[in-house]
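Lab notebook, bench 4. Still working through the backlog of constructs that have no structural model yet. Next entry is a single chain of 243 residues. Request: give me the structure tokens for it.
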Amino acid sequence: MPSLRTLTRRWLPLSLKRSFQHAILGYDSYAPSFSSAGEDMILRHILGSDKMSGFYVDVGAFHPTLFSNTYFFYLNGWNGINVEARPGSKELFDRVRPRDVNVEVGVSRERGSLTYYFIAEDSTMNSFSRDFLQQIEMLEHVRSEIPVPTIPLAEILDRHVPQGQTIDFMNVDVEGHDLEVLESNDWKRFRPRIVVVEDEGLDPRESKIVRMMNEHGYELCAQNVIILDKINEYFLIDRTNKR
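Model written out:
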């Protein structure tokens, strides 16, 4: 029997087709990107547009669908792990992304607690990094400072990645706390094929994150400007195992 997606392509007028896709399927195939700056389409190109199943890890996932680098893949049959520190976020992720493992916790080098600078429920700039918020002139918008428990990334992956499961890509977007997240992984055990991460500045030669990832066997394969002269996004591929 033809799928709902196939039926919308064959039989509905374009205007009804798009309305149907938004209402029933959750997206419009003519504008499939859910990311804030096209990251999901860059990943689709790197991984191969015909790859219709896989596993992702999203640290700093923010929202199940909005500005999501993984939702496009979820709609196409993928699944994975979403990690978001914002208190109360897990309930919505569990409802919208039931095939995923959804974890509400901060990620850092050690188990403990960090101050979470909360701007708003719908803000993508909530952060553990006071310095980052000051740099991007958002510190004055902080409404509350909340203690949030943290655990290392390696511990999350050890607990939730199925035995033998390949991680096709990992997205890290934690507003200035990204290096600490990456340093908390066990790179001998957990090696995503692609890592997407933000860093300050626009020159990869000056990036502590790129330097650290090079030391772990990853090389830069693409980059994306997020905020001109302030924030860049790097796509790094595991050069030890280019599947």
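Notes after review: The beta strands are 55-59, 79-83, 101-103, 106-107, 112-118, 144-151, 169-172, 194-200, 218-227, 231-238. Residues 1-18, 24-30 have pLDDT under 50 and may be disordered. Flag for follow-up if needed.
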